[in-house]
Design a protein that fits this description.
Elements lengths: L3 H14 L3 H14 L2 H25 L5 H21 L1 H14 L23 H24 L2 H11 L4 H4 L4 H9 L7 H20 L11
């Protein structure tokens, strides 16, 4: 968005000065598209959506993935997405209005019919189109993707395994999460074995942190 004016100038120059008719035609079409209110609205919306998941994406791409931190960032991304859905539509529209004003882009009247056809009304207003068809739809899609890719079982499994990471003397150790992980394997852990595991984990973490020196100086790469 910072270089929007520069992009406009580049397309204008191509439209006027390119020696090739196809390039001039393409530049004209692109120039018309990016100077539409709908394009600007989607540009601002997608920018915000990418910011919401930026830290999560970086955490998941690291070679030394900190699963506990990544799961916290996942919950943060979902919470921020939900907050944005519930209370940030108006502020987004105001930002788009301001941007359009600076760049001489026509702002439609939100209570008017959205239909692209001059001969057929759609009974859908601009306000409904931008709020329901775009804003809510995009955020709902992101929430669905975050929830489906990291459902409760997947999150429990990842967090359970992360609790067994020996780095920094098992800094992420959480007995309850490990037991919850074991509960997903009832054929291997019946009630008696789960009770035994509870006691064994208490003994294990004391031994690992106090008695086994090889874990004390084990650090993250």
């Amino acid at each position: 968005m910072v270089i929007f004016s520069l992009i406009i100038n580049v397309f204008k120059d191509m439209q006027q000065n390119s020696p090739h008719s196809l390039e001039r035609f393409a530049a004209k079409n692109l120039l018309g598209n990016i100077q539409e209110f709908e394009f600007v609205f989607m540009l601002h919306l997608m920018f915000k959506m990418l910011l919401l998941t930026n830290e999560l994406n970086k955490a998941l791409q690291k070679k030394d993935q900190d699963i506990v931190n990544a799961m916290s960032l996942l919950e943060l991304a979902k919470a921020r997405s939900q907050t944005m859905r519930e209370s940030e539509l108006e502020s987004l529209i105001n930002e788009v209005y301001s941007f359009c004003g600076k760049h001489d882009i026509m702002i439609p009247k939100m209570d008017e019919d959205y239909s692209r056809s001059k001969h057929k009304k759609s009974d859908v207003s601009y306000a409904h189109h931008f709020s329901v068809k775009i804003f809510y739809a995009v955020i709902d899609l992101q929430l669905h993707e975050l929830n489906s890719r990291f459902d409760v079982v997947t999150s429990d499994l990842l967090l359970g395994m992360a609790c067994l990471n020996p780095v920094e003397s098992f800094a992420n150790f959480d007995k309850d999460r490990i037991i919850k992980l074991a509960e997903y394997y009832p054929s291997e852990f019946d009630d008696n074995k789960l009770r035994d595991l509870n006691f064994q984990l208490d003994s294990f973490i004391v031994y690992a942190r106090m008695c086994d020196s090889k874990f004390v100086k084990l650090e993250r790469n």
